[in-house]
User: Fold this.
Amino acid sequence: MIKIKSKKPKKYAEKELNKIRKKTGACDHDKIGYPALTKLAEGMLARSKQDAWNIEKLSGILHSQNLTLKENKKGISILVDKYEDRIEELEKQIEELTKQRNEGTRAYNGLAQMGKFAEDMGIDLQSAKDDLPEAEKNKYHFKQTDTVMESGKVKHEIKLTPKKKGKY
Assistant:
């Protein structure tokens, strides 16, 4: 067990003690006096008024920030809705472009197969390229359709019809 020694209060001379009493407003019994209590109460009142003003000011700031946050939430939800709509539009566009790409690939594959069939039949495509519809513009109507069957196979239809010559 540790013993704690307490210090004894400092002893002042009577003359010094009277000076301290006069300075602090204490009575002869060394208790705080009414003037000191009044001064303390006035100081506490001024401090509480200042604190009340600060609390009111901070409360106003918090209220305005709360309103700003609510407005921002509304704006953010509007932006999210717009972005979700835009994402849906882009997804539809992706589907359409994928479909067009697949149709183009099927058409290319159909033409490539037709070229292989022609070579197998003994047709020289290099010499026949001048007879292609692209070589003589506006001479033929060229139409190609590709249909995906239920079995997964692709049916290619190619139509080439000469254009009728109109009067000039």
